[in-house]
Amino acid sequence: MGGVLPRVCHAASLLVTRGVLGQTAALNSVQQHAQLLPCASNFQQCITACGVAEFQALYEWLLASPQQAEDVDVIAAGQAADPRTSEQRTPLELSTFQLLRDVGLSVLGSTLDYLTLCQHSDARCGEVVEQFRSVQAMGQVLDERMRSLAKEYLPETGVRSPLLRVGHSVRSDLQAFLRQLPGLSAGLAATELGARLAQTVGQRARMLSWHLGMHAWVRGLRVPGRGAPVLILHEEYMSFQDMISAVVGTMVRNGQSQMALVEVGVPLEDWYALAAVRDFPGVQYAGIMAEPDQPSEIEGRAFIFEQRRAELQTSLGDRGVLYLASLQRAADAFPSRSMDMALVDFRGRSADDAQEQMTLWESKVKPGGVLLGVGFWPASPEIILTSETASLLPDFHFQSEEEDHHSLGLALGSSYRAAVRARLASHEVAIDQLLNSSRCQQLFQELLANHEKHVPELVEELRGIASGANVSNERLFAMSLQEELAYCQETLTATPRIVDHCTDSMLCNSQYCFDAHNEDGDLADKWLFAAFVQFGKSNFTVLNYAGDLLGGMSAFAFNKQGIAFSLNWVGPGDCDPAGLGRNFISRQLLTAGGWDEAQRIISQRHAAGHNYQLMDFKSRRIANFEVAHDQVSEVAIGNAFFHVNQYQTLSVPDQMVGNSSLHRLARLRMLPEPQTPQ
């Protein structure tokens, strides 16, 4: 991010009470500082009068607040960015940056007003809350301005969300400032808090500039053979250290009081991780400083290592340990799935080396853990693309005039053997719990017998996948029916499964007909591939999870007859072993010859339930289907319709609902009804 962060001012030497030297002196003092106020109209004289150099630096820094997105391309190339013309900047962008600058300067003006009162022994110096009342008014003005800016939607598609979020962040900063004021003593403490608030607003503007620059830069990236990567840009962190603290803090708040963190490549300077974990007593830290490649550097590296080890002892005591070793030797020392978090420094690495390190250290992180990386920025685009490529599987192409289900499954399993085995391993604990319970084993056998009776060809296809991947038939079948088998657990009702997953937004009128689906599976289900299949008379395309039947847990699928669908989890209260698993029914949908056949397939008895968005490209229509066992509801889509992970049209009194679905629907009701795809 551009700009140098100014040092927060310390005005203690100028906040001492000067005393009253007589009525004439007091009168002169009042007249003198009355001429200065308000400082927002007279910044330079107020700063000169207060005599605090840090205020001059802060004022100049706020004046230099960015007015546009940074040009990331030229920054990455080490060049100076040329300011874009006003024609190249959107009105929303211009207005938001100007608003941030105005707020920062207003806060600085209020802080200087207060400092001036205190320096001249004005009694109002003791009225801390009253003297910063203008900050409360700023919050109200900010709300009004942001509401007005929010209306500028279509012309600024793609930048609107980060602009509005930074407005909300600054509003939160103002509110936090006002909450702290009543507990502060008059003078120095309140002045420094005001200066820090002004500094924070200036930093928010610079973070937004960087974020928008990254946003534009990312949209130009392309993964070979895949198109644009999917990246989430976070603008709420003030620094990398802040991000580490936020991630660790989130894990602690979610109940993980004890955790193991490894830092791979302890830096020679700017040791962010140490400060980030210092305040979390449950974190056990292991740091690895890489041995230098050149023998001439060994002595110097050893000296820095001893300095770092002393810092570690002072900060963490016996909660931390530091090693000087090669990265491979260090990796060999950590067992698989032993760490809750791994922080890896990828700076200066080649794409191949980065991919190797990602794969290596990802295997050391527990399921549900976090792998963080340093060095993902525009100067090293190959590292970013490597991270995207590493999570993508190659496309699957299959063509057969015969409908040989075992051969199709065998081809799938052998093509994605490593991914199927990895995904099955990620579900290992859950599958063990299901298969080792007598109650669950009984349900499993009943479901298996019912599927062998009604859809034997699909059971054979799944067995082909297991054979090709060289994994257990039983365990792969259990993973395919994991949602249905989960009902056998006695704790299901008390602790329902977290279902914060997919969402669909639909609209089908005379101008537009579309369905937008958000595929939001767990990390344990990250292995996705695109399949292009001609199977007998059927021809279909699907985005699929490794180890599933095609179309089973499909993110999206369509066939040559013009039938398409997306899927959402929903949870009725129990499982009926006489019904079919949702993955098997959606596999059948791939071969539907038309709308009527697709309706018939969806309406089959389900072991549990499912939600289908069914599309017909030929007749240009969409319908939303909800199924719970043998109950089915169908809603033809006209006006905008939004579906989450709960029943919305079918009455299922004992359904399971997660907080995420409730919040998504609540948020939807706050927004205007969509009229277009934008």
From TrEMBL:
Q: Which positions make up the signal peptide? A: 1-22
Q: Which UniProt keywords apply?
A: Signal
Protein name in UniProt: Peptidase C45 hydrolase domain-containing protein
Residue intervals of the Peptidase C45 hydrolase domain: 516-671
From what superkingdom does this record's organism come?
Eukaryota
Organism field: Symbiodinium necroappetens
Q: Which InterPro entries match?
A: C45_proenzyme-like, Peptidase_C45, Peptidase_C45_hydrolase
